[in-house]
């Protein structure tokens, strides 16, 4: 299970007692969840008005940052196209896997100094993650353009003989070049029509050079034949060939153009390889930054909601529960029994009601402070 419930309850005589009580109820007798203390430092409380406003702002910031975290993770899977199994090992926070980071969460004092007000800390996070989001858009756009252009060229060099580029199939020797009167045409003939082609190509129009056809290349369905004729017969030959289900390809042998295509493909391929390493490194670093920011927002939200609900002085225990998948319903019931005294109205509050500062519109409401953290951020198609 990669899902965690981040909850808080008011301190009894001590916060340790709150923790012990919850442990007894959820793990000691019935193994409903694996629990960890979630350490939130002594943050600056500020005024009630500010807290109420922050509660709403942070709900929006939470979903914005979660969105960016998921975008970076998803783009990592797109970039590591051939090695998706490697994605998970690149999605780390502070060099450790996400579950380890969340369960051993420590506030980053250097990045988010606790002497700052809660509003300032949330603004630091907001700016930092908005920057990651903008950078991701720019980098993804540049890399996707490169990848798209390369795929278009690769597509031109693959597929059916009716549509694919012929530059890498034909050679200079296959053509009559620099002749005022003669021209070599390339014709796609279905495999079932080879005998028919050999029998009739010389008579499809006037002025076809006898015995001038050669099979140059085959794919699953058809073959590419060359045939030499007089230039003045081109239109007639093309028309008669179509009537006989042979397709004349529009192709003129031009070494410069063909080399330019090959060079362009090599250049794009080299550019893609050059950009790949730095891009993966950037994604790795910024995934970590965004994920760490996201968990700090969860910590801020728990702090703000706990102060709003349980009052001052600040006295609550934040706890991270990793529910046992089979027992999630039972765990909810146990927590409900344990904390129902905190708010007698909780069981009847409709989640659609919007009470300022309690942030109910986005999620279910419980008598204890509750936020979900899901570390499974990838949507493999």
Distance between the termini: 20 Å
- Decide which structural class fits the backbone: alpha+beta
For the largest beta sheet, what order do the strands appear in spatially? 2-7-1-8
Largest sheet: 4 strands, antiparallel
Number of strands: 8
Q: What share of the residues does DSSP label as strand, in percent?
A: 5-15%
Mean pLDDT, to the nearest integer, reads: 91
Query: What does the radius of gyration come to?
Result: 34 Å
User: Can you write the helix and strand succession as a string?
Assistant: EHEHHHHEHEEHEHEHE
Overall, the morphology is elongated
Number of helix segments?
A: 9
Helical residue percent band = 40-55%
Segments where pLDDT lies below 50 for 5+ residues? 348-353
Keywords: Acetylation, Hydrogen ion transport, Ion transport, Transport
Protein name: V-type proton ATPase subunit C
Pfam families: V-ATPase_C (PF03223)
InterPro entries: ATPase_V1-cplx_csu, Vac_ATP_synth_c_sf
How would you sum up this structure, described in words?
The protein has helices at 15-28, 48-79, 87-90, 98-103, 118-156, 194-200, 234-243, 255-310, 328-339; strands at 3-10, 33-37, 182-190, 214-218, 222-230, 247-249, 316-323, 369-374. 47% of the residues lie in helices and 14% in strands. The relative contact order is 0.22. The two termini are 20 Å apart. The strands form 2 sheets. Strands 2-7-1-8 form a 4-stranded antiparallel sheet, sandwiched between helices. A 4-stranded antiparallel sheet has the order 4-5-3-6, covered by helices on one side. The chain has 381 residues and is α+β, with helices and mostly antiparallel strands. One of its GO terms (cellular component) is membrane. Keywords: Acetylation, Hydrogen ion transport, Ion transport, Transport. This is V-type proton ATPase subunit C.
